[in-house]
Amino acid sequence: MKFTAEQIAGILEGDVVGNPQAEVHKLAKIEEGTEGSLTFLANPKYLHYIYSTQATITIVNRTFEPESEITTTLIKVDDAYKSFSKLLEYYNQVKLMKSGIEQPSVLSENVTYGENLYLGSFCYIGKNVKIGDNVKIYPNSFVGDNVTIGDNTILFAGVRVYSETEIGKGCTLHSGSIIGSDGFGFVPNEEGVYSKIPQIGNVILEDNVDVGSCTTIDRATLGSTIIKKGVKLDNQIQIAHNVVIGENTVIASQTGVAGSTKIGSGCIIGGQVGIVGHITIGNNVRIQAQSGVGKSIADGETVQGSPALGYSDFNKSYVHFRNLTKIVADIEELKQLSKQ
After folding, report:
1. Does the global pTM surpass 0.85?
2. Where in the sequence is the active site (predicted)?
3. Does 3-95 match 100-314 in CATH topology?
4. Alpha-carbon distance 25 to 32, whole Å?
């Protein structure tokens, strides 16, 4: 796809300084810009690159005035970083603007779908599935019976959505994610042999939820596992049965949340965090990477460590841990002195 400086300025409500018909077809970092590329300048540390970049078009703040000759056409905007992000979003929307049903694919009985559906090759859509407008389901995806998918949602290649799942509007599910597989429910008998507890609940993803590649969200034993509006889940995360995650919480890769735990809104959870089941984590909690959370956390707390401690307590303890050898030596010396 090719765009002119004039077209880009129209999208960004910017002003062109240079050739309005300058044309670009790719994106680049400012230090790596070549002919035909679009870049941006937002960080003052990269200012010197604008005088050497070969990028055809550069987005800059309105306050920028070159101090020497430049070859790149400028688009001046209020905030170069935000404008470039807006342009990336627009470009992504154009790139994903597919529609139609490719073959082979299967639509089972009583499937309904809205306008501009894209269904890639080798997809299976189960019975009684309801699909909204502008939904994109990429090849090799599976959607089980009685699933609902809201408007403007994207399922990338190889997504698996089990039966009864409810997916809201504007969600994105990346390749390899699995929504609605059985929760980990087993009970031992007298001989220690485990029998499976039927998992008959479902998963609900509310609007604008992002699910990363190879992330799994288990269906509830009873009721629903609920991922609320605006939640962002990274790749390779495990969310167990009956978990509830509050609005606009973000969780980084390789984190595991055990069954029936409730996580509040606005939380930030780092990578490789382990959270036990049946606890409550409050709103606006911060959990540092590789922490092990074994008890409930109140609103607004920041914790770190395994088991997780208050953030300041952990840092104080870590200082002592680093000096542990010296502390032990000092204690041994005091013992010797006490014997004299």
Report:
1. no
2. 241
3. no
4. 15
Structure tokens at 12: 């960004």
List the catalytic residue out of 25, 241, 278, 320.
241
Residue with the two structure tokens 């796809």: 1
Q: pLDDT tens-digit profile of 66-79? A: 999 999 999 999 99
User: Could you read off the pLDDT of 206-252 as tens digits, one per residue?
Assistant: 999 999 999 999 999 999 999 999 999 999 999 999 999 999 999 99
The beta-strand segments (E) located in 282-330 are: 286-287, 292-293, 302-304, 309-310
How many beta carbons lie within 10 A of that of residue 190, not counting itself?
A: 5
- Is 174 marked active-site? no
How far is residue 121's CA from residue 67's CA, in Å, rounded to a whole number? 54
**Residue boundaries of the structural domains of the chain:** 3-95, 100-314
Using DSSP, state whether 113 is helix, strand or coil. Answer: strand
> 256 in helix, strand or coil?
strand
Instruction: Kindly report the length of the chain.
Output: 340
Identity at 220, one-letter amino acid code: A
Hey, what are 89's tokens? Answer: 């979003």
For 273, residues 6+ apart whose C-beta sits below 8 A from its C-beta are 251, 252, 255, 256, 287, 289, 290, 291, 292, 293
Amino acid at 317: S
pLDDT (tens digit per residue) in 278-300 = 999 999 999 999 999 999 999 99
* Distance, CA of 49 to CA of 29 (rounded, Å): 10
**Where does 3-95 sit in CATH, by number?**
3.40.1390.10
Question: Quick check: helix, strand or coil at residue 187?
Answer: strand
